[in-house]
Amino acid sequence: MAATIFLAMIILLLLGFPMMIPLIVGAFIGFYELFNGIDKMDFMVQQFMAGIRPASLIAVPMFIFAADIMTRGHSANRLIDMVMSFVGHIKGGLAVSTATACTLFGAVSGSTQATVVAVGSPLRPRMLKAGYKDNFVLALIVNSSDIAFLIPPSIGMIIYGVVSNTSISELFIAGIGPGLLILFLFSIYSMIYATVKGVPTEPKASWSERVKAVREAVWPLGFPVIIVGGIYGGIFSPTEAAAVCVLYALILEFIVFRAITAKEIYETAKSTGLITGVVFILVGAGAAFSWVISFARIPQELLGAVGVADMSAVGVLLVISISFFIGCMFVDPIVVILILVPIFAPVVESVGLDPVLVGTIVTLQVAIGSATPPFGCDIFTAMAVFKRPYFEVIRGTPPFVFILLSVAVALIFFPDIALFLRDLAFQKGA
To answer: What pTM did the predictor assign?
Structure first.
């Protein structure tokens, strides 16, 4: 049965069908084989609906909606201007500002693709004018947007938390440490690149200009305060924080900045609805598919064949990392999470791994794969936004991928990079 399911899915993918179709067909074949016909297909529908029933998933469309509002408004530019005023004058300062702006916008949107659009669109022309090579600029923007997958609110972490029944609040806090480490290493590399290539520095901003930039960025900086502060302080759940973020984004962009109109809010809501529909179909189909492979004991057979059950905790984490990294090089990150998390769940539990650590590593690997050839989704987002050919977008990615993979390996051997803040915030091990 497993061979039939995966062969059918691969054929459908090669024929160009969107990922939701292979998932649904795979689940259908599984239920048909398991129950000898279509008599129990109503059970497949039940599993589909069960996949989208968790209340935590409500946070996904809300964070998408808030990110879309801010992308159309002034929040991204105000964050960029603030960062530029402080670090724009150092060697590689414009590149450091780009990476930092991606991190800050990630703390607002939770979406890698929204970050590519919101930060990349205004900063790429400035970097090209300053003397940076386009392949470096594109790689920096695409890979810095990965930090948005780690810094809360991370849509990837929400999906992982729902699928694995792991605390989303703890996942959010655990992603901060690795995200800041990646930002630091990207900044160091950017400074080295600018020094070697002789990229000139930007004029140094005066303190009055910095104060003005900070004053104008105070409102957008409220988003991470709401999300991290609200969750850390026990004021909000992640879902409630998402709802407050939507309200805050509407007040900010529609009333305070007056950057969007009522018609644009309607268009944004409609766009969010379409994206949410696709995401929820994927989640529902993934839940039905996961039930099939679990009921048929396919995970146990696969993991037994490669000997994962006999590995140490470090070995299991390495296998998980490699599997998610390779999977996201070819398939949408949400789909990879939906398919692979249930496969590895029994082994993660049997070796006693912290599910929050596993979730952080999975999210990082998903983010890396999303920006890695051949089919990382952020690559194609950059191609569409910047209208550049495929090979130009990926040419500068190897150093950034190396840095990201180095952080992923460091997480495996030094888990406190992720768990220190989690333990501090939630009094773990006290």
So the answer is: 0.84
